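Appendix B. Worked example

We walk through a single record from start to finish. Start with the input: the chain for 4-chlorobenzoate--CoA ligase, Cupriavidus numazuensis, length 517.
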Amino acid sequence: MLDLGRTFLQSVERSPSAPAIVDGDLLLTYEQWLARIRCVATGLHDLGLRPGDRLLAILQNRWEAATLHWACQFAGVVIVPLNWRAKPDELDYCVRDAGAKALVFEPVSADAVLESSAAQEIPCIALDHAPGGPLSFDTLLDVTPRLDSTLAAADDISLMLYTSGTTGRPKGVPRRHRQERAAALAHVAQNLYRRGERTLGVMPLYHTMGVRSLLAMALVDGLFVCVRRWSPSQAQQAITDYHVSCLYLVPTLYHDLLADPGFDSMGVRTVTKLGFAGAAMSDGLLSRLEQAFRPELFVNHYGSSEVYTFSIEQRAGRKPGSAGRAGLNTRLRVVRLDATSPEAVTAPGEEGQIIADLRGDEAFEGYWNRDDANAKSLHEGWYFTGDIGYFDADGDLFVTGRVDDMIISGGENISPADIESVLSLHPAVDEVAVAGLPDLRWGQKVVAFVKPRGCVDAQALDTFCRGSDLVNFKRPRDYVFVADLPKSPVGKILRRKLSAGEYTSLSSPSSNVPTKE
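Next comes the structure step. The output line below is what the pipeline stores for this chain.
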């Protein structure tokens, strides 16, 4: 299999004059971009970085970040992208855990770099004259490239992503060139991308969705439109200006796009393919997107940093909530919640933990320096995802929550997803998240946190739930109306913050619902 550097050369050889990347006023063709990529690869070598060394990048989605990613693929250096909002202690941990040899940053991340003792021990390369960087990114560009061929092979490590670390220390996920290329090829196939597609590069390049968009566009000689910070109005303008043809976003960003006062469905008609991942999409948002975009393809992609694709549903509206069938490079099973054997499979309709075969072409091989995490998640050649779900009678997968998010009320196991799907269909509900709160009688009680978009009270929502097919013991016992739902940088709802009371509540005529069964 080709490494990623040679993969990029394919695109240059096929379409040297095709537009490759846009960032503000900058537009580069594949041939022009390759020249800059080769300069940066040579510049990294001149700084002393060698194949296998790790380079941290703390950057927004700008052309330099995308260029650095590709330069590392040519130089054989392992790119380690981090959230540009990272705090100094997070930076300390990742620099030392990764054994980073250098770091690239920009003004927005300068304070964290300056306050990180670990970062100050390695060469720091600054963009835009950011303080604390004795080296400038411009020096990487201002060299004569001497790397005529790539220094990496398909089995070398391409990048290491760090998981969000919401339940403890972040975990490094190293991925090889062949795993990254296989994942990108499958992404192209599963989203039916054609040559010359154009996408918004809005999902961060420290997240697997962002990396996949970057690689997929190169595979089809497409255009990557950099979006440094999310703005619904600016995103819509970019779609119009650059005739964007495909979107791959988390549900939160789709929600923001539709909620923007200036949203115009006619202005986004160049978009024919929608894809989402990172979190479940409510039935209500799914319906609104189909009406607004009328896409040819609407892909629900379920995956992770460890095994990029678990499953794919190419017609998300066909069976709302379904994550579809296993992806091209994947085998899936659902096993009992307490199982550590891949043979303890559940019956159709029975909830359990979703697991994936580690022999799949996209699967990682284990966490970096984390034997404890490997012992918890890797069993007999299978990756135990920590996600709960079931296969229905047709063989379609439904993801109902996380093992850690499971609500146990009165001895019943309750997943938030079913309840959220029902409540999302109420016309006065903008967003909703369900969590379990302590209760003396039941152990935990089901509480719905609702961001409204109209006049509604708890009684109305309780009546709505009673009129649905939601079984009674799953019905929320309390409703909390909030200004916003707490989310991670990539749009995942943080239920732990809701349970801890970290939200801004809104006044409501009544938050408690009748307890009559």
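Two observations about the output. The radius of gyration is 23 Å. Residues 406-499 form a domain with the GMP Synthetase; Chain A, domain 3 fold (CATH 3.30.300.30).
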